[in-house]
Specification:
By secondary structure, this protein is mostly helical. The protein has eight helices and two strands; from the N terminus they run αααααααββα. It has one domain. The radius of gyration is 26 Å and the shape is globular. It starts with a helix and ends in a 7-residue tail after the last helix.
Length: about 240
Amino acid sequence: MQGARFSLVIISAAILLGACSSVPAPRGEVQGMSSGSREMGQSDTNRVATIAMHSNLQSLYLLMDKLYRRNPAEWKKTAASREDAIQRVRSAIEQRAPWPALAEQRDIGALSLALKPEFAGDRVAAFIHASADMIIVAHNGKTEFFLIDSLDAQHLYNAARNMEIAVWLLASRRNETGKPLLLADDISEAGRNLSFEREFGKIVARLDLLAVFITEKYRRAGISYVQNLLGGSFIQFLPVR
């Protein structure tokens, strides 16, 4: 009898340990942007667009850091350290300043130049700066949005397609020695590193979602107008005495 009880205790303990080990590890939590008085001048659409823009720029900065780590020869063309090179590119993007190596090119012209095999400058800096500039141009040259601002859904959609094309060119084009323009994702016998593809995918997804959201905003405005007209006649309280 005691042996049976002991076995039951062991089995129960094993089940509890198994249940504990199956609990997923913490993956963080949702982090919203800090609030401020400027929000009073923003609609829901303005706020969504501002958050999406902030997230897309943060994704590009993360990709820049990862690309510099895999391609250290590039940041050496810009600064004495990787951190300094990152800061210089970030400052140029946020101040809407042109990148010198891109010969005053902006938007898709700069993106095209950054992806040419013969480009001799810091390709990481040029690619990230041009990508950010193209996305900002698609948002009417702004990174923060208020009630007086409007966005064109087709421009956002086009920016998403441009980003897809740029990533494909980055992976498929070769330089004069036959190597990829920049080392990014890696699939080998040692393992698979697709972190670059996932981060670029987030940017494309945000642009596409915002484009659909903007389109739905105007469509829903028309539907809401009709609903209000109908509601004025049919959705009313009735007298009870």
